Amino acid sequence: MVTSAQLAQIAKQAAAAADFDLAGVASVRAEDLPELEAFPEWIEAGHAGEMKYLEKRTDTGKLRRASLQHAAPWARSVIVCAMNYNTDVPYSTEVRDPARGWISRYALGPQDYHSSLLPRLRQVEAAVVQAATVNYPTQETALPEMTTAQAPAPKTWCYVDTGPVIERVYAKYAGIGWIGKNTCIIHPKLGSWVFLGVILTSLEIAADLPAPDRCGSCTRCIDACPTQALIAPGKMDARRCIAYLTIEKRGEIPEEFRDDVGHQVFGCDICQDVCPWNNKSGNAPAATTLEFQASERLVHPELAWLAGMTQEEFSQTFRGSPVKRTKFSGMKRNVAVAMGNSGNREFLPALERLAADQDATVAEHARWAIEKIRR
After folding, report:
1. What is the pLDDT of residues 84-127, one digit of tens each?
2. Distance separating alpha carbons of residues 295 and 317, to the nearest angstrom
3. Which of 4, 97, 255, 272 has most Cβ atoms within 10 angstroms of its Cβ?
4. Interior CA angle at 36 toward 166 and 72, to 5°?
5. Helix (H) or strand (E) holding 4
6. Which residues are catalytic?
7. 185-189 CB contacts, 8 Å cutoff, 24+ apart
């Protein structure tokens, strides 16, 4: 009969074969950990902003992402897989051209990470299920009179960002990395440039040791955030985060934050760019995965090019890309803000066209940008 330790090894070998850089296992007993206990309070404080999907509840009224006991009571272990997405391009803190904007590092490739990671997770899931189905009955379903050959197949659920697990919490307890003060998982060799995918399973799999916190007294991420979104170590008010404002936020970006959005047109990497674990010699190597290779035109893209896009051009350029999440109107809104922050008077004709846009939000942000440049 395969042991829980052997299942852990099988999962990690399958993850490596599927091109994941890291893999580990956490027990669902991580339920009682402070990171999860603090989540309902974070939601109640309104720090999730308009991200209502984070507020989904179970039939019993419990927040799904705060309790696997209620969201997936059959789960016994969580397999966490991580993949490096770093690209060999400058950091946003190293370049500043007033004619160009910035797209977050994770969105520079041609493919959305969800569609890249999920098939690979399926490979890991299949390997674990195959190893366990015949000779490893689950605690939940196996009856004393059953032989191992009669035991039901283990239950599993794998996904990327779309399920009830707060991935970074279980990544920490699976030994993938610690949760940094910027709320990102940080690995001592890969830094914070990692995508996470998880597999919930009814199997009892040997858990790894949690990763120790190695941020120390450093507060560079907190100090560097232009909008002071990091309100405490490891705690973010998403409503102030530039990534939230340029991607998740619909409608108007509050005026109090527009100056600080700077040249960001999709997402923000500042709190990661300044992190020493992403800058140490030999750390954060560039990813070799083809899907995450940067498209040249998206690296520090020309604002005039983005502002002049039609809906069709936007759809064609960002087909399969995470950038499509902000939608065409959101991109035009963000570009208008970046143009205003550039101070570049050459953008005034483009902004005049955006000020006449049929989308009232785009037009309002363009008028704001025109006024700022003229001032």
Report:
1. 999 988 888 887 788 999 999 999 998 899 999 999 999 999 99
2. 10
3. 272
4. 60
5. helix 4-17
6. 161
7. 185/82, 186/214, 186/215, 186/275, 186/277, 187/22, 187/82, 187/211, 187/277, 188/214, 188/277, 188/283, 189/282, 189/283
